[in-house]
Design goal:
Elements: H1 2-25, H2 38-49, H3 53-65, H4 73-89
Helix pairs in contact: 2-3, 3-4
């Protein structure tokens, strides 16, 4: 009986481990989940400079969290302020 309980506990542990692995596999990557990385940052920058408030905010987030670019709080602040100005114009 003890062998059956031990086997059941090991199986339960493996199932839980597999579930956590699948959960973590779906998590965001350091580049923000974007496959392009630098290309998507350049696309955000281009759109933000063109007046897209959402892109400016996302670019600020990228710099704040270091996703696809090195962390830079000054640059993040610049893009957050730009986003706020663009949202005000809407």
């Amino acid at each position: 009986m003890k062998i059956a309980l031990r086997a059941h506990a090991q199986t339960s542990f493996l199932i839980a481990l597999a579930a956590v692995s699948l959960l973590l596999a779906g998590c965001e990557t350091p580049t923000g989940g974007a496959a392009g990385g630098a290309a998507s940052i350049e696309a955000l920058r281009s759109a933000a400079e063109g007046g897209d408030a959402d892109s400016a905010y996302k670019l600020g987030e990228a710099y704040f969290h270091g996703r696809g670019v090195p962390k830079n709080f000054v640059e993040a602040d610049t893009w957050y302020k730009k986003a706020a100005e663009l949202y005000q114009k809407k």
